[in-house]
Specification:
single chain, 2 domains, six-stranded mixed β-sheet
């Protein structure tokens, strides 16, 4: 067996007892389904004949037996339908948990190339298809084989000639069903792909709804959605066309079998080769025969659809994170905060060239260092390299003298706090968003962190205070309020190393003043790297580094750099002139 096959079968392991009961009930269903027509044959052939002694009593006994069998059949069908589906749902849940956990491990470089709608499709519709295969696959295969063999043997014992006439049609039925089943599966896979494209289009448009409306581009987005939606409808048209031919053809074969049995059976009766009770029994088994054929064909469909979803699942699971924990890993509870970059180079993609080239800098414990420069020289890239969201292509980044690639990712990132220009807040309450910095924090600690971030006053003015729902991405708050909540999170986290990535560049003057106050309180006694756009916010930095495409060209205090009349002084004069 292949690795992926073994992986799929491993999801059955916690539910082997349930699977065994499911298959046992499926066997009972098959047996009773095959026995009931024989009961009918016994009544029509033996109890209704001229030699029957007590036909009414015997028929009543047989009716009782058949009722018991039907009751057992109903209970088994209930178990298979309910518990069998639950087994599939639990396996789907296990796969979804594993896939979500793997999503959490994958690095920024993976998400740079992905669409959220496509990733959502893998964790929802793809896994549902796997769940259906996990439940219906063994059950349909088992029921189909047992019933098919049972019907074949019983009809052969009743009348071999009539049985062979029916069997002659089966190869044509299988070829027909497999042909249209294959076409139906291709259409289903295309439909899955198209609905994922629709999801991606919707996610993209809704995430950017403010830009859409500000540019009055609703008709453009509607046209893009309509195009994706039309492609999806076309894929469904192909799917339903194939499905119509498939099920219509199967019904036609069923009716043809019935007609052939009636015609040739009538001929056999006139020739005394068959009696009426055998013909009735034969017709009952022809009706049963269609069901295992459909189950076997359905198994092929579930298999194709489910295995396609499983391969898409495994394509992600087998993708190793670009950033991995070292073994063994350095696991300090708290670092001091000494940071050093040694000849660091980095590019997002080989064909895009390097963003940083041979960069070196040092930040002492407790030192406040600012990094400035024109757009595109790699300032924000640096803030992503230090917590290992990306790994440097060359050179080393050391924290407390230890290469950051030797730290566990958890230990490294727990000791680093980042405040970015684009703050992400979750669609939850104010308190839950602040507590994200320390999930086990008490209410008193949450309030204390908010006060340190100068956020307590505006929080108390909200309708439910700390229990106010702030909407996805904190949309109900202003930019300055969102920044102060993100700073409050860091007060709870209490990291020794702080990175501020243009944290105030998108704020108005009043919001910037308040946020700047909270930032100044945050960076007290912590090693701090500030990536600044507004030079007025970094006047008090211990050192200011000026970054250009060639590397750091100047460094010194605000006053020293102005006196040197270099690149920094030019940037300063340019901002004053605005």
């Amino acid at each position: 067996m292949g690795t992926r096959t073994m992986k799929f079968l491993s999801f059955y392991r916690p539910y082997l007892g349930l699977l065994s009961l499911d298959l046992f009930c499926a066997f009972i269903i098959s047996a009773i389904t095959l026995i009931l027509p024989l009961c009918v044959r016994h009544i029509t052939q033996n109890l209704l004949g001229a030699g029957a002694v007590n036909p009414i009593g015997d028929i009543a006994v047989m009716a009782g037996v058949m009722l018991v069998l039907v009751a057992i059949l109903t209970l088994c069908n209930l178990f298979v339908d309910y518990q069998g589906h639950m087994m599939g749902a639990m396996m789907e849940s296990d796969m979804r948990r594993e896939l979500f956990a793997h999503y959490q491990k994958l690095s920024f470089s993976f998400y740079d190339e992905q669409k959220t709608g496509q990733l959502m499709s893998r964790i929802t519709s793809d896994l549902f298809a796997i769940s259906e295969l996990a439940h219906h696959g063994p059950e349909d295969l088992f029921l189909g084989i047992v019933k098919f063999i049972g019907v074949f043997l019983i009809t052969l014992s009743i009348n071999p000639s009539l049985s062979l006439i029916v069997i002659m049609l089966l190869p044509f039925m299988f070829v027909y069903s497999l042909h249209f089943n294959r076409k139906m599966n291709r259409a289903m896979r295309l439909s899955k792909q198209r609905v994922a494209e629709v999801n991606a289009q919707v996610e993209d448009s809704l995430a950017g709804i403010r830009e859409v409306q500000s540019f009055a581009n609703e008709p453009l987005e509607q046209a893009k959605f309509d195009a994706a939606n039309a492609r999806f409808v076309e894929s469904r048209r192909l799917e339903y066309k194939s499905e119509g031919f498939f099920y219509g053809g199967m019904d036609a074969f069923t009716q043809l079998m019935t007609v052939m049995v009636v015609v040739f059976g009538a001929v056999a009766i006139t020739g005394a080769a068959l009696d009426l009770s055998d013909l009735i029994t034969f017709l009952l088994y022809v009706g049963i025969l269609i069901e295992p054929i459909r189950r076997l064909v359905n198994f092929a469909r579930w298999y194709q659809e489910g295995i396609t979803g499983f391969h898409r699942f495994m394509d992600i699971i087998e993708l190793p994170p670009a950033i991995q924990n070292p073994v063994p890993a350095h696991e300090p509870e708290r670092v001091r905060g000494k940071l050093e970059l040694q000849n660091v180079s980095f590019g997002y993609r080989a064909d895009f060239g390097s963003v940083l080239r041979d960069l070196s800098l040092k930040i002492a414990v407790g030192e406040y260092v600012a990094l400035v420069g024109a757009s595109g020289v790699g300032k924000s890239t640096l803030s992503a390299l230090i917590p290992r969201f990306y790994d440097a292509d060359a050179g080393r980044i050391c924290l407390d003298g230890v290469d950051i690639r030797e730290y566990s990712l958890g230990a490294l990132r727990r000791n680093i706090g980042t405040v970015a220009q684009d703050v992400y807040l979750f669609g939850a309450t104010v308190a839950e968003n602040i507590r994200y910095g320390k999930p086990d924090a008490s209410d008193a600690e949450v309030v204390a962190a908010a006060k340190q971030a100068y956020a307590h006053r505006f929080i108390m003015a909200l309708p439910q205070g700390y229990d106010t729902e702030i909407g996805q991405r904190g949309i109900k708050l202003s930019a300055g309020q969102r920044q102060r909540l993100s700073i409050a999170r860091l007060f709870l986290k209490d990291p020794p190393l702080i990175i501020l990535d243009e944290a105030t560049s998108a704020l108005d003057n009043e919001s910037e003043r308040v946020v700047q106050q909270s930032l100044e309180r945050l960076i007290e006694n912590r090693s701090t790297l500030v990536i600044a756009h507004r030079l007025s916010t970094i006047r008090n930095a211990d050192r200011i580094l000026v970054l250009t495409p060639e590397g750091i060209c100047e460094q010194g205090s605000h006053e020293e750099l102005l006196e040197s009349d270099g690149v920094y002084a030019g940037l300063h004069d340019l901002q004053l002139a605005r």
